C-alpha cells in the first residue's frame, strides 16, 4: 500500500469544514478509490478557539498559514482562506517554493496571479488544482481539461455567480426592487463579505478569466474583461423583459476571434425558454462549445459547503492518484498573452428609456436610431402618470458601435428624461 497523502488545510470556514467532514466521514471510500489513506497533518485558521462543531485535537495547528504550507509532514497545501492577496497568496507561494502540491478554491487569487503562480508551480514540478474555484460543485475544469481535450474550444458561456442569479430571479418572483432583494440576500448570508464582488460581477469575472485561460491557451487576463454588474437592473427591466419573453441574467461569454480574446461579463437578456433562461436561484450553469463535440451544458450548485468541498475533494483525489498536469491546460510558458477585443458580433439589444412626455418625442428617438443604422424590431410605451413616458425598444441585430453612436446622439435630442439602460440579447 502506498504512503498516506498528508494534507495541510488553511481555512476552516464553510469550505474548509466541508472538506474536513468528507475526510472524516468517507475516509474508507476515498482510500478504496485512490489506493491511499488521505490524512490531515495540520490545520490553520484565524481563531484557534472558535467552536467549529468538531474536535481538532488530532491535528497539528499553525497560527501562520505560511508555516503550515512549509511543514515537512504536508504533501498538499489546501488553501481555503480566500482573497487575492495577503495570507492566501503568501502561503500558496511558500507551499510551491517548498515543492508542495496546492489545491485551492480561490478564484480571486488565480484570476489575478494565475500566470505567476503557474510559472512558479511548474518550475518546481508542482501542481495547482482549483476545480472548486469555478462554478462550485460543477466539474467544469475537469470537463474542459479531460473530457474536451480533443476539442478546439470555440465559446464558453455561463451564469457563474449564484448570488446574482438569486437576486435576479427573486426580484421577479417577489416583484420587489433590487434594493429590497439585495438586503434580503445580505441578511440570509448569501453575499460575499464585500458584496460588490458579487453584484459588481467581479467574482463571476474571476471565474470567466480562469475558464478563458483553460479554453483558449491564453494567459489569464482578468483586466481584459468587459465588466458590468447587476446594480442598475430594476424590477421594471425584469418585468419588461418577461413581457417580451426574456429573462435577465448576469452572463459571462468568452471566445477567441481573429481580432483577439473577447471576454464579457454583463447582464444580458436570454430567451426564457432557453436552459440559461430557466436557471433559477443560486444554481450555476456553464455552456462549453467545442469544434468536435458541439455544445455541452453543465448545471449545478455553484456554492455552499457540500458542493464546494466536493470539488476540492476531486482535486485531492486526483493528486492522491498521481494525476498532475500543467496549471492552465498547457505549460505556462506556452500560454499566449491575449489581445483583449470588444465583441463585433451583431446582436439585438433591449433599450429602456424615459422620454419627456410631449409630441414628437418618440419620433426623435426613432430618427436617431435610424440615422445610426439601428433598426427597431419592437417598441412599447407603458402607461404612466408622471411627466416622463417609459419606453422599451428591442432592436434588430446591430453592432454595438452603431448603437453607441445612437445612444450618444439621444442625449442631444432634448427629449430624454434620464439615462438609457441598454442590455444585449444573447443568442444561447
Ligand atoms: P470563510 O467561510 O470565510 O472561511 C475562511 C477561513 O479562512 C476561516 O476559517 C478563517 O479563519 C480562515 N482565515 C482567514 N484569514 C486567515 C488567516 N490570515 N490565517 C489563517 N486562516 C485564515 O470562506 P469560505 O466560504 O470557506 O471560502 C474559502 C475559499 O473558497 C474562498 O477562496 C472562496 O472564494 C472559495 N469558495 C467559496 C465558496 C462557498 O460557497 N463558500 C464557493 C466557491 C469557492 P476563522 O474561521 O478563524 O475566521
Ligand atoms: N459568491 C459566490 C456566488 C460564491 O454567489 O456564486 C461561490 O463562488
Describe the protein's architecture and organization.
The chain has 428 residues and is α/β, with parallel strands linked by helices. It has 14 helices and 16 strands. It has helices spanning 14-25, 27-34, 65-70, 87-97, 107-123, 140-147, 162-174, 178-187, 196-199, 202-216, 235-243, 305-320, 361-371, 400-410; strands spanning 5-10, 38-44, 60-61, 76-79, 101-104, 128-129, 153-159, 226-227, 246-257, 260-271, 283-290, 294-301, 349-356, 376-381, 388-395, 421-425. Strands 7, 8, 9, 10, 11, 12, 13, 14, 15 and 16 form a 10-stranded mixed sheet that branches. Strands 3-2-1-4-5-6 form a 6-stranded parallel sheet, sandwiched between helices. The protein is elongated. The model has no long low-confidence stretch (mean pLDDT 95). The structure holds NADP nicotinamide-adenine-dinucleotide phosphate and L-homoserine. NADP nicotinamide-adenine-dinucleotide phosphate binds at residues 10-16, 44-47, 50, 65, 80-82, 87, 105-107, 132, 136, 303-304, 308.
